[in-house]
């Protein structure tokens, strides 16, 4: 389960200071605008069920929902495989969606797509429960050789390199999700 990571405010300030800013607040705003337009074009007539993947989806999903001006429902899934660390392990389910999925058009929203095991598990779960269709949206896509074969998000805000990133919903060991930019951690801070 969740690893306890004790970090002081001074240590976190150091992580932020050493990190490299990849996408600033304006770039995130523009990416969310694009995502909103693209999702609207495809899903506006489907009365979708929008599922946020806790915890990282909180920030991008809230901001994205303001840009979706059509009927939709909101629910959440809590699944995690990083457990406040910087290395992915097995997918652990903490909460499944309570809204019936049968015949629903589902939009799964997350902060980042990395190796893709999280999305693979969530998409399969939605389809097993009878969803009519499943689309995926991420603020940040991190293409990498370890990606689950054939897996790609339908809607992508920004691309990030193969480094450990945080901000805009993404955590650094449980912290810094509330930073309004996307940073790559200094390699020395990755462990
Ligand atoms: O594509 P993958 O390699 O599966 O990784 C992507 C997942 O990793 C992060 O979640 P995490 O498990 O860290 O939980 P969190 O949402 O609480 O940060 C992120 O929010 C995605 O859900
Ligand atoms: N915060 C964060 N979570 C992730 N989950 C998968 N990759 C990442 C990453 O680079 N940063």
Automatic annotation (TrEMBL):
It catalyses: IMP + diphosphate = hypoxanthine + 5-phospho-alpha-D-ribose 1-diphosphate; GMP + diphosphate = guanine + 5-phospho-alpha-D-ribose 1-diphosphate. It comes from the Bacteria. One of its GO terms (cellular component) is cytosol. Keywords: Glycosyltransferase, Transferase. Signal peptide: none annotated. The keyword Phosphoprotein does not apply. InterPro entries: HGPRT (IPR050408), PRTase-like (IPR029057), PRTase_dom (IPR000836). Residues 22-169 form the Phosphoribosyltransferase domain. GO terms for biological process: GMP salvage; guanine salvage; hypoxanthine metabolic process; IMP salvage. One of its GO terms (molecular function) is hypoxanthine phosphoribosyltransferase activity. NCBIfam families: PRK09162.1 (NF006605). This is Hypoxanthine phosphoribosyltransferase. It comes from Spiribacter vilamensis. The lineage of its organism: Bacteria, Pseudomonadati, Pseudomonadota, Gammaproteobacteria, Chromatiales.
